[in-house]
């Protein structure tokens, strides 16, 4: 299924897929985010998230989205 395709939901055939939902939390994020400069927080988050994504992809997985706290 491609983005923008006009699909009739009645024509869609269900299929079984293996999937996982992963939640992670950075311990003491609020504390260090209040004292570190913004560029260091940005670099830290990018490094942390990149390693998580790499682990998923190394296991032949796919990351659909990342969602932060609301």
Sum up the structure in keywords.
70 residues, mainly alpha
Largest sheet: none
The gross shape turns out to be elongated
- In which range does the helix fraction lie? 25-40%
Number of helices: 2
Q: Helices and strands: which structural class? A: mainly alpha
Share in β-strands: under 5%
Uncertain runs: none
How many angstroms does the end-to-end distance come to? Answer: 30 Å
Mean pLDDT: 85
Tally the beta strands: 0
Radius of gyration: 18 Å
The helix-strand sequence is HH
Task: Summarize the entry for a quick read.
By secondary structure, the protein is an all-alpha fold. The protein is 37% helix and 0% strand.
Produce the secondary structure layout:
Layout: H1 29-33, H2 38-58
Account of the protein in words:
With 70 residues, the chain is mainly alpha-helical. The protein contains two helices and no strands. The chain has helices at residues 29-33, 38-58. The two termini are 30 Å apart.
């Amino acid at each position: 299924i491609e983005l923008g395709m006009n699909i009739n939901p009645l024509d869609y055939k269900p299929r079984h897929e293996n999937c996982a939902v992963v939640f992670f939390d950075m311990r003491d994020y609020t504390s260090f985010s209040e004292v570190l400069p913004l560029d260091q927080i940005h670099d830290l988050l990018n490094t942390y998230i990149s390693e998580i994504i790499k682990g998923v992809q190394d296991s032949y997985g796919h990351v659909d989205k990342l969602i932060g706290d609301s």
